[in-house]
Design a protein that fits this description.
The complex is a heterodimer. Chain A is an alpha+beta fold. Chain A has 15 helices and 17 strands. Chain A has two domains: 138 residues, Orthogonal Bundle (Arc Repressor Mutant, subunit A); 223 residues, Dna Topoisomerase Vi A Subunit, Chain: A, domain 2. Helices cover 44% and strands 15% of the residues of chain A. Chain B folds into four domains: 203 residues, Histidine kinase-like ATPase, C-terminal domain (Heat Shock Protein 90); 69 residues, Helicase, Ruva Protein, domain 3, CATH 1.10.8.50; 138 residues, Ribosomal Protein S5, domain 2 (2-Layer Sandwich), CATH 3.30.230.10; 48 residues. In chain B, a hairpin with a 4-residue loop joins strand 4 and strand 5. By secondary structure, chain B is of the alpha+beta class. Chain B is globular. Classes of the chains: A alpha+beta, B alpha+beta. At the A-B interface, helix 1, helix 2 and helix 4 of A face helix 12 and helix 13 of B.
Chain lengths: 376, 512
């Protein structure tokens, strides 16, 4: 942490020095940054979203609004620097309140947190290290961590304590806000299954599946946060096959695509995409193919709401979905049939719990095998 | 019911003054409040005319003094009171022998010429004195002196309404310097200051706008002094007396003109009596009206007069009336006058002369914006250099302003805007006998509208430019604030002084 802090502080100093010198010499600063929009980003099946920087946009300090942005940037960087030096983190909300200091408020007149969030985002787009953007977590700005992981993985997080993820509470380990800085000592799992819904993940843990199948079970709690995505990537980098278990809905396709390919918005932050991640369900084939594993409970499918349909339509324009054959087909079928399935559908079989466990095991093994991952 | 048998013994012939006094409401003397205002206004206008005729820069002072001690009275509850009104000017003064005739008698003109003048009847001043005498039974005092004379006159007199004759009660010569000239009229009248105060002050303020070459002073009954010093030292060009235009007369007038003409035949009558008619136009017209050119004018019968009048009205080839009889205020004068409102900007336009019912008129429009003007749209109306204060909403200019789309010019209804309109004409198109507002005459309306629109176009450009400059200044201030803030933050974190001096010494060059 100290090394990384020192590096980031060094980068901040360079930026501040450059701006100071420019002003001192009587010139208005111009600051180039990475602009993330579809035209600045390429999609590749192997790497997810990749930033392209042909003509990076820049902030022109001669313009009033740009000067305000640069003033905010300078102030933000001085705050980050102080926090890093003191080994303190801050939340996005903390950062917003730092702009309510009277002398800052009088000049910058920040009206809401969206403005300060944008400033942090800009810092990530401006300050680079070894060609890639430095994520805000490295500046000490963390959002509330989201997501848990249960399984036989030994690590030490920012607390500095060494722990095993299957002995850290009923859900396992609460994912660190800075997974880049987590040290992994030992991994004793054959795969990691990340479940969209917390209830389903808890059921799998309660039924003892992680131990029985030698897998890790992560709970995404809906759309995964940056920390969770970074953690998934870390596991994948450690050769752990990543399987994602989500609803059969347009929203879940987005969740999976974010894990697999990152997002356009954050394409400048490397280490958030896990191209090797595999979607193991629920899929349209599970319900609608005659030999589909969930064909028997097709009647449990729900009608898609108008917002579901809107989401599916928008998915058609998201490169990570529209350019991925599997995801595109899933989206198209859903849009055609206008029905969606949820992880809770397993309960619609009405099976005794012991049989349900077998069904889960059978489902996971079958789907993992289809993705070239062999589970015991 | 009228019968042809003759006059009833109760019916007597009225003198001009008796008729006017009985019908004084026509001239505005209908209640004590309005009478006080109208009296002041008529006398001030007489004074201004007297000075301008003499080509001297007017200095007019008015003093209103409450007669008797009314300090203990409840002023709001109390009715009309008696006031002494003293109006003094530096005009040419009046010859001793003319004093009773000019001031003490109601006169009507007999000359058939037209010229722009302030007065409505030309009798308002005398009527004011008459009103004062009737309501207080007190005589009138006139002090007057002429230039190059070493003495002036003080005359105290009373008017006899029934006979239209003045009676001199007292008179004396008073010593004065030969350089001095002017007239002071003082008399008592019934009035209501509380209810007319606002209007009188408004009248002075607006007169000061349209007559910026005059010094005006008003001393109120409460001892307050309202003073408007002159803003410019040049007098307006005096209007020329012009013969009437054939389109601007009626049968009665035609009859009178024929009665006094010395012309031997109709063609020379036409040429001599009307403006813009030469011998050939006269001949053509008489041919058109089927009258012989050589006919003796006085030989025309009543029905021939009527058909000649109709022909005058329908003949299309008369040249338009000459605007030489008009004396517009001029845009520079209006511009000077409007400075009394201390606006940020003012724009004035004078339209080309136009014609309404055989009378020439010129519309001058202007718009003042910002500065000392309060929020909202105001209209200042002037006719022949007198302010019109009553019935604004019925006036054609109010309708024009109401229908203007200020948004088109980047302005809003609640912006501080004053519209100024001045019409000068030998016949102002008043709508009613009250003569306080202009009727909705198409040609007048169009001229006012076009005038205002021209002004708006120029004004909006100025306002936009000011806004641009203002925005630019705001931008520069903000920019400097941001860099000041940056330099403070950077100086603190880098522990050395970061200055923006160099940056902002060159900011002007960068922007240009």
């Amino acid at each position: 942490m100290n090394d990384s802090n020192a590096e980031v502080i060094g980068r901040i100093d360079i930026v501040l020095e450059t701006i100071a010198e420019t002003i001192d010499e009587g010139a208005f600063p111009e600051i180039g940054y990475f602009g993330s929009s579809k035209k600045n980003v390429d999609y590749s099946d192997l790497e997810g979203y990749i930033p392209i920087e042909d003509t990076p946009p820049y902030i022109d300090g001669r313009k009033v609004e740009s000067a305000k942005t640069i003033a905010g940037l300078v102030y933000g960087l001085t705050r980050f620097k102080e926090h890093l030096e003191q080994k303190m983190s801050m939340s996005l909300r903390d950062f917003y309140y730092m702009h309510k200091v009277k002398r800052v408020q009088d000049v910058l007149k920040i009206e809401n947190q969206t403005e300060t969030n944008r400033l942090i985002n800009l810092c990530e787009r401006i300050i680079k290290h070894k060609g890639t953007s430095i994520p805000r977590e490295e500046f000490g700005v963390v959002s509330s961590p989201k997501g848990t992981f249960y399984g036989d993985v030994t690590l030490s997080d920012l607390s500095g304590k060494r722990l095993n993820c299957n002995a850290a509470g009923e859900y396992g380990w609460f994912i660190s806000s800075r997974p880049f800085d987590v040290q992994i000592y030992d991994i004793n799992i054959d795969a990691a299954i990340f479940v969209e819904k917390e209830a389903m993940a808890r059921n799998l843990i309660e039924l003892g599946l992680p131990e029985q199948m030698s897998v890790g079970v992560g709970s995404l709690f809906g759309q995964p946060g940056r920390n969770m995505r970074a953690w998934i990537r870390r596991l994948s980098d450690n050769e752990v096959p990543i399987l994602v278990l989500a609803d059969m809905s347009p929203w879940s396709l987005r969740i999976f695509s974010t894990i697999k390919s990152n997002s356009i918005e954050l394409s400048n932050i490397r280490g958030l995409a896990t191209p090797k991640a595999r979607l193991i369900g629920l899929t349209t084939k599970d319900f609608w193919r005659k030999k589909g594993l969930l064909h028997g409970i097709e009647h449990s499918l729900e009608t898609m709401s108008s917002s579901d349909i809107k989401c599916a339509r928008q998915n058609q324009n998201i490169p990570a979905i529209s350019q991925d054959e599997t995801l595109r087909k899933e989206n198209d079928v859903m849009l055609k049939k206008k029905r969606k399935g949820e992880l809770e559908a397993f309960k619609a079989f009405g099976l005794p719990l012991s049989d349900l466990k077998h069904l889960y095991i059978k489902y996971l093994k079958t789907k993992a095998a289809a993705n070239d991952v062999k589970l015991i | 019911m009228l019968t042809p048998k003759g006059y009833s013994p109760d019916i007597t012939e009225l003198s001009v003054s008796a008729w006017f006094y009985r019908n004084r409401t026509i001239a505005g003397f209908d209640n004590p409040a309005r009478s006080l205002y109208v009296s002041i206004r008529e006398l001030v206008e007489n004074s201004l005319d007297a000075c301008e005729d003499e080509r001297v820069l007017p200095e007019v002072s008015v003093r209103i003094r409450r007669e008797g001690d009314s300090r203990d009275q409840d002023l709001i509850q109390s009715g009309p009171e008696i006031f002494e009104l003293i109006v003094k000017d530096n005009g040419k003064g009046i010859k001793r022998n003319d004093i009773p005739i000019l001031i003490g008698k109601m006169l009507t003109g007999t000359k058939f010429t037209l010229r722009q003048s302030r007065g409505t009847f030309g009798l308002g001043g005398s009527l004011a004195l008459l009103y004062g005498q009737v309501t207080t039974q007190e005589p009138i005092e006139v002090v007057t002196g002429r230039r190059n004379e070493s003495y002036g006159h003080r005359v105290v007199m009373r008017l006899d309404i029934e006979t239209n004759q003045p009676h001199i009660i007292e008179e004396e010569r008073i010593a004065k310097s030969p350089d001095e000239s002017g007239t002071m009229v003082s008399f008592q009248l019934q009035g209501d200051w509380i209810r007319s105060k606002r209007r009188i002050i408004e009248y002075f303020s607006q007169t000061a706008i349209i007559v910026p070459h005059a010094s005006l002073l008003l001393e109120t009954p409460t001892g307050d002094v309202l003073k408007f010093d002159r803003l410019i030292d040049n007098l307006p060009i005096a209007p020329k007396e012009m013969k009437p235009h054939p389109r601007g007369i009626d049968v009665e007038m035609l009859k009178k003109m024929i009665g006094v003409t010395r012309a031997k035949d109709l063609k020379s009558f036409m040429k001599r009596s009307f403006q813009r008619i030469g011998i050939s136009t006269a001949k053509e017209f008489l041919k058109y009206s089927q009258l012989e050119s050589d006919r003796v004018p006085s030989s025309l019968h009543q029905n021939e007069l009527v058909s000649m009048m109709n022909a005058l009205a329908s003949y299309k080839r008369f040249l338009p009336p000459s605007p030489k009889s008009l004396s517009p205020a001029g845009t520079s004068v209006l511009m000077a006058g409007v400075q009394r409102l201390s606006p940020d900007f003012a724009v004035f336009r004078q339209r080309a002369p136009n014609v309404y019912e055989g009378h020439p008129f010129i519309i001058e429009t202007g718009i003042a914006y910002g500065g000392g003007l309060g929020a909202g749209v105001k209209i200042f109306r002037f006719a022949n250099r007198i302010p019109l204060l009553y019935d604004e909403r019925s006036d054609v200019s109010y309708r024009v302003v109401r229908d203007l789309n200020l948004k088109h010019y980047g302005l809003r209804q609640d912006d501080p805007i004053a519209f100024v309109v001045h019409i000068c004409s030998t016949k102002i198109p008043y709508k009613t006998v009250g003569k306080e507002y202009l009727g909705d005459v198409d040609i007048v309306r169009r001229e006012i509208e076009l005038g205002f629109k021209e002004c708006l176009r120029e004004l909006s450009e100025k306002v936009r430019k000011r806004d641009r400059v203002h925005k630019q200044r705001m931008r520069e201030t903000r920019l400097e604030n941001y860099y000041q803030f940056m330099s403070e933050s950077l100086s603190a974190v880098l522990e050395r002084e970061i200055s923006i001096k160099k940056l902002f010494s060159s900011v002007g060059d960068d922007d240009e």
